[in-house]
Amino acid sequence: MKSKILSSLLFWIVVAIVLGIVCSLFFPEWLARVFVTFNGLFSNFLGFFVPVLIFALIAPAIAGLGKGAGKWLGVTAGIAYASTIISGLIAWGTASALYPSLLGDRTLNTDVADPEAGGLSPFFEVEMPAPFAVMSALLLAFVIGIAMTAVKSDNMYRVLDELQNVILKVVTSFVIPLLPIYIFGTFLNLGMNDNFGSTMAAFGTVLLLSVVMTLVIILLLYVVAGIIAGRNPITALGNMLPAYFTALGTSSSAATIPVTYASTLKNKVDENVAGFVVPLCATIHLSGSMMKITLYALAIVYMGHMDVSAGQILGFLLLLGIMMVAAPGVPGGAIMAAVGLLQSNLGFDESAISLMIAAYIVVDSFGTAANVTGDGAIALIVNRFAAGRIQGYQLEDETRELDDASPSTPTSRVESGSTRA
């Protein structure tokens, strides 16, 4: 039992979070900057690697869909968009019900320090440009995958099979073992950041509410997914905890894809369904981000006594659900995609935008964690109808234990499996 706990990725992630917070209280700056430097290098590597990972997982899955590619793509995108919009509507209802009592007569204070500017700087940086952007990887995977359903090329399938195996080997042997160190550095830097205090003072109540509501939306998603898929929602949610805590440390849906994929497999989701849904939803499903942005925006509207109609808010939510699809799965991507709508639809000025960005960054990881955990719920729903209908590439059973791989002794192995029917 003890060895199983020590070899669990979830255990090491929790340890990394706790140690990062504790060590921030007494670490000298020079030592903390060593970990910040590592985080910068590892983050840049993830920026380079994630588009390739998305392509390697989605292209064969799309090809395996055959003539039904458009159908399952549409179903998944529709579920993700509905989840994101419903999250926004719940946030709107929550704000309308609670803000009069929570915020009372508070006025808007936009004099906050930039949280990112308060963090420690690395000793050096190494740029690692990605071969293509995340959205480009997604589109390329769709184009090639759909084209392969018409042009039945055994050679192309073998190439994608080998590419997928190579990429997943990098995941199991390099990315996952280093994640606890990366998460430790993130929370260490967070704890030593002096600029978070001003944001918490100006927006503290709303920040805490947003964290609670991201947990509520996760529970709702798994209750619905459990009913549709016939699974115990608590068990399914428990299997996704490694993905949740990893996202807390990375603040990136894209960087968490390997762990989300492994956690989804533990819920007995078909491997080809998981390989299709998880990378896709990492880009298009942002229910947690929608919850946070809506709560923050409406708090500013309330405290700033802004004249915004219900129609404007509804239009903002519907457009935001589309605009955030263009947000890369990287820290702060969703709020950057929302800036234009905040200005044009809700009339936010520069000071209000600055407060929105600062508040979002302070608890960015909680929205990201809700996003990726929700991806697992969507995978359960799609699996209920698509399991066995997506004939892609199978991964050997060891891949199901990605989250059990020890950070120091990864043992997972990826092998070539069944061929396309």
From TrEMBL:
<feature type="transmembrane region" description="Helical">
    <location>
        <begin position="241"/>
        <end position="261"/>
    </location>
</feature>
<dbReference type="GO" id="GO:0032329">
    <property type="term" value="P:serine transport"/>
</dbReference>
<dbReference type="GO" id="GO:0005295">
    <property type="term" value="F:neutral L-amino acid:sodium symporter activity"/>
</dbReference>
<keyword id="KW-1133">Transmembrane helix</keyword>
<feature type="transmembrane region" description="Helical">
    <location>
        <begin position="273"/>
        <end position="301"/>
    </location>
</feature>
<feature type="transmembrane region" description="Helical">
    <location>
        <begin position="357"/>
        <end position="382"/>
    </location>
</feature>
<feature type="transmembrane region" description="Helical">
    <location>
        <begin position="130"/>
        <end position="151"/>
    </location>
</feature>
<keyword id="KW-0813">Transport</keyword>
<feature type="region of interest" description="Disordered">
    <location>
        <begin position="397"/>
        <end position="421"/>
    </location>
</feature>
<dbReference type="Pfam" id="PF00375">
    <property type="entry name" value="SDF"/>
</dbReference>
<feature type="transmembrane region" description="Helical">
    <location>
        <begin position="313"/>
        <end position="337"/>
    </location>
</feature>
<protein>
    <submittedName>
        <fullName>Dicarboxylate/amino acid:cation symporter</fullName>
    </submittedName>
</protein>
<dbReference type="GO" id="GO:0005886">
    <property type="term" value="C:plasma membrane"/>
</dbReference>
<feature type="transmembrane region" description="Helical">
    <location>
        <begin position="200"/>
        <end position="229"/>
    </location>
</feature>
<feature type="transmembrane region" description="Helical">
    <location>
        <begin position="163"/>
        <end position="188"/>
    </location>
</feature>
<keyword id="KW-0472">Membrane</keyword>
<feature type="compositionally biased region" description="Polar residues">
    <location>
        <begin position="406"/>
        <end position="421"/>
    </location>
</feature>
<dbReference type="InterPro" id="IPR036458">
    <property type="entry name" value="Na:dicarbo_symporter_sf"/>
</dbReference>
<keyword id="KW-0812">Transmembrane</keyword>
<feature type="transmembrane region" description="Helical">
    <location>
        <begin position="48"/>
        <end position="66"/>
    </location>
</feature>
<feature type="transmembrane region" description="Helical">
    <location>
        <begin position="9"/>
        <end position="28"/>
    </location>
</feature>
<dbReference type="InterPro" id="IPR001991">
    <property type="entry name" value="Na-dicarboxylate_symporter"/>
</dbReference>
<feature type="transmembrane region" description="Helical">
    <location>
        <begin position="78"/>
        <end position="99"/>
    </location>
</feature>
